[in-house]
Design brief:
- It comes from Arenibacter aquaticus.
- InterPro entries: BatD (IPR025738).
- This is Protein BatD.
- This protein is an alpha+beta fold and 592 residues long.
- It is built from nine helices and 30 strands.
- It has helices spanning 2-24, 138-145, 408-417, 450-478, 480-501, 506-525, 534-543, 548-563, 571-591; strands spanning 29-33, 37-39, 44-50, 55-58, 65-80, 83-96, 100-104, 108-111, 114-117, 121-126, 146-152, 163-172, 176-184, 191-195, 204-208, 211-225, 229-233, 237-249, 255-265, 269-273, 290-298, 302-303, 309-319, 335-337, 341-349, 352-365, 369-373, 377-382, 387-392, 396-400.
- Strands 11, 12, 14, 15 and 16 form a five-stranded antiparallel sheet that branches.
- Strand 5 (65-80) and strand 6 form a beta hairpin.
- Helix 5 (480-501) runs antiparallel to helix 9 (571-591), helix 6 (506-525) packs antiparallel against helix 8 (548-563) and helix 8 (548-563) packs antiparallel against helix 9.
- The radius of gyration is 43 Å and the shape is flat.
Length: 592
């Protein structure tokens, strides 16, 4: 027992001596550079090392360099001959942004309540240097092994001809792509654009410059050029995180991978848009480009007066179905014709738009008889044959079986049957009186009369009234915000008047509401909104500094107008959409 007590006391004394020695150890905090002279195509490793654990590490701003990786943290601790050693390191990998001499300033850290600073060091960046393949860094390997390419279906299309752009990322089989994000999505100016969503990223084995690569499609878009000449397609830029193999091996002999990131861009691409030929261009050509079928059909050819039929003008096929006007029917004046209802069934694939569009007319005959629906024509340009085509519809004869007749004979019969005897009533002759019972005016004069003094006092009364009226007008004119609200409300009522009249009739209301919204943008932004998608309209409103809430409200109304064609909408919903449209137009008018 006595020996055990001595051993315990000796152990405590030894531990105290070690702790005292450790506390007396000098605290160090220093910066270490992998090299002091490097080429602009090389990387610089900077380590900030301390022999005591600290907090609140603040790195320098690294002026003249771009941080490629970091900060990464490593800690080592060991006991050698009863002496404990400790080391903590913050590491950065930097890429120079320009040639010249740069100073890496001080970093700071707090250790046991005291702030320590590293010494600044100078680095010289020279011109690019050549290095053997064995000395390539992870960034060098990533630069050579990662490519973003924009594949364009046609580089010399016609105006309004579909062009498909597919963005593919090519990665060498020696590296692994762990993540990517878009830095800058292209804006397709002078194009009507439609994205084709990529729901799944499928990796394909392929080659690039004769070497084995993996490729994946990131983005697909169909463009319809709206302008001739050379048009630029902006590049897509991505930030890609990759793992690159190094020459180092782990404990089990496996290759160690280094994590790095790289910015890749598809590069600027230019296409040359050809104008449509003028030779052989039909007079009724309205801008249709593609391959189409055209027809005019009637739901009935035999009916009675006051009954209705549907006359449908339909265009189907492949081409710019959303970017031209459908020919109008030319019907006899004795037929009552309502505004056509537009129907659209179009889907966008990699080859462009395909489907059908149509106008459906409601026709109500008034009199009995036979009425022709004359043949009409539709012209389009076929880019495959590079010629114009004109299609003509067949004439349709509408036979109205029962109803009132109209014509000269009927009019004469009605005139003869409606003749009536004219019977005189009251006195037939009126005589003028020979003695009119006139009285003398007298010799009264205007000057000095009551009327004279009233006219003389009238200007004195009008002067204060004019002053009050002028002040009132100035007050109204100075109320800028109030005047803006009044003008916006008048504008909303102007464009929404047709929609208000159609409240209660779902189809008519939403057709009128959609036209009101498009006509407002057309008048306000001087654009043809039929050439733009909802995404394009959102982009235009954002460029005009319209707040996001108003943008969402406007696009939401357009979506409701489309949904109303296929879904039932109540009167309450129509009232809400009308009220919302008034508010949105008022807000837009104040913000644009």
């Amino acid at each position: 027992m006595k020996y055990k007590r001595y051993i315990s006391i000796f152990s405590l004394l030894f531990l105290g001596i070690l702790l005292h020695a450790q506390n007396d150890e000098t605290v160090t905090f220093q910066m270490k550079l992998s090299k002091e002279v490097l080429g602009i195509n090389e990387r610089l490793r900077v380590d900030f090392t301390m022999n005591r654990d600290g907090d609140n590490f603040v790195p320098p701003n690294f002026e003249g360099f771009r941080v490629v990786m970091g900060p990464s943290q490593s800690i080592s601790s060991s006991w050698v001959n009863g002496v404990r050693s400790f080391s903590k390191t913050y590491s950065y990998t930097l890429a120079p942004t320009a040639r010249g001499k740069f100073t890496i300033n001080q970093a700071t850290i707090v250790i046991k309540g005291e702030t320590y600073k590293s010494l600044p060091k100078e680095v010289e960046v020279t011109a690019a240097v050549d290095r053997p393949d064995g000395e390539k860094t992870a960034d060098d390997v990533a630069d050579e092994s990662l490519h973003l390419v924009a594949e364009i279906s046609k580089t010399s299309p016609y105006l309004n001809e579909a062009v498909t752009v597919v963005y593919k990322l090519y990665a060498s089989t020696s590296i692994d792509v762990t993540n990517f994000r878009a830095l800058d999505n292209p804006k397709y100016n002078n194009f009507w654009s439609q994205d084709i969503p990529v729901t799944k990223y499928d990796v394909q084995n392929t080659t690039y410059d004769g070497k084995p690569y993996n490729s994946v499609i990131l983005k697909r878009v169909v463009l319809y050029p709206q302008k001739t000449g050379k048009l630029a397609i902006e590049p897509l830029s991505l930030d890609v995180s990759v793992q690159v193999p190094t020459n180092k091996r782990d404990f089990f002999g496996g290759r160690i991978f280094a994590q790095t990131s790289k910015t890749v861009s598809a590069g600027n691409r230019t296409i040359n848009v050809k104008a449509l030929p003028t030779q052989g261009k039909p007079t009724d050509f309205s801008g249709a480009v593609g391959d189409f079928k055209f027809s005019v059909t009637s739901s009935k050819t035999h009916l009675n007066a006051s009954e209705s039929l549907q006359a449908k003008v339909s265009i189907s096929g492949k081409g710019n179905l959303k970017l031209f006007e459908i020919p109008s029917l030319n019907l006899p004046s004795s037929l009552e014709v309502y505004e056509p209802e537009f129907n659209e069934s179009v889907r966008t694939t990699l080859s462009g738009m395909e489907g059908s569009v149509s106008d459906s007319y409601t026709v109500v005959p008034t009199y009995r008889g036979k009425y022709p629906i004359p043949s009409i024509s539709f012209s389009y340009f076929n880019p495959k044959t590079e010629t114009y085509q004109t299609l003509n519809s067949e004439e349709i004869l509408i036979n109205v079986l029962e109803g009132p007749t109209s014509g000269p004979s009927n009019t004469a019969n009605s005139n003869s049957s409606n003749k009536q005897m004219v019977v005189a009533t009251g006195n037939q002759f009126v005589f003028n009186k020979l003695k009119p019972n006139l009285t003398a005016i007298g010799r009264q004069h205007f000057f000095g009369s009551r009327s004279f003094y009233l006219w003389w006092l009238l200007p004195l009364i009008l002067i204060p009234l004019a002053i009050l009226f002028g002040k009132k007008r100035e007050a109204i004119a100075s109320d800028v915000e109030g005047n803006k609200i009044k003008r916006a409300n008048r504008l909303a009522r102007k464009y929404l008047s047709a929609a208000k009249k159609a409240l209660g009739s779902k189809d008519s209301f939403y057709v009128a509401l959609e036209k009101a919204l498009h006509n407002y943008l057309k008048a306000k932004l001087k654009i043809e909104t039929s050439e733009f998608s909802k995404d394009k309209i959102t982009t235009l409103l954002a460029e005009k500094n319209v707040d996001p809430t108003t943008q969402e409200g406007f696009v939401g109304l357009l979506k409701n107008c489309e949904m109303a064609r296929y879904s039932p909408f109540s009167d309450v919903q129509m009232q809400q959409d009308y009220k919302k449209a008034s508010e949105v137009i008022s807000q837009l008018d104040k913000q644009i």
